Amino acid sequence: MSSLLKYTGVVLGTLFSFVVHAQDLGIDIYNLNSESNNLQGKLLGEVHVLSSEDNSYFLYPDDWMPGSVSFVNGNVFENMQLRYQAFEDELISYNENGRFLYLVEKELVESFTFEDGNRTRKFIRLTKNNNQQTNMYLEELYKGDISLLVNWYIYEQSVSPFADRNGITRAVDYQLHKDYYLYTEQDGLNKIRLNKRALFSQFPEHKKEIRKLLRQNKLFVNSEASMAKALFLLTENNLAE
Length: 241
Fold this sequence. Notes:
Elements: H1 2-15, E1 18-23, E2 26-31, H2 34-37, E3 46-51, E4 65-71, E5 76-85, E6 90-95, E7 100-103, E8 109-116, E9 119-129, E10 132-142, E11 147-163, E12 169-184, E13 188-192, H3 196-202, H4 207-216, H5 224-236
Antiparallel strand pairs: 1-2, 1-7, 2-3, 4-5, 4-8, 5-6, 6-7, 8-9, 9-10, 10-11, 11-12, 12-13
């Protein structure tokens, strides 16, 4: 049994470069590198302990979400329990059989999805922004010649001391925020608000045409869905150039 568990750990280690084991007071992270994946049945690495407040850093803090992970080499791993760690921009998977958490090596990931109720939420790993190398996860709301992306992040701010649910005194509060961006391979990321004025400012040379197009389609831009539809219409009518 012991040998089998060690072998299983090595196989999983080839998929993920970090192994995390949940504990009552935090999470121990076993930081593995590519060399340690090839060691014969040995899991070596530096152990880190994350406090219980780290649960506040997740996009989905209350539960694990079913989803899939696609690697850049074409491998796809389905029916996984996933969470997105928004504070440090990391993807974490939970293995129910071994009761382990895995911090997925970002360089291996092309995209991942969450099944959130009746909606599939897709995140991509952006590697280039305006000809500059980057390495960040963004939620993809619309994919086209001009894509609509969301950057989720945790804002940390100092507050008056308070006792958390564990009775521990805290003086820092964490709040989940998001920014919207338009993305093209040529121009990279451009921050945008979800309204028609933002579209006018992005495409000033087509302001009249865009205004007319939105009016014809009775489209009021004030949400993620309406902005995605507007971008589709702009592309279909050659107004997104």
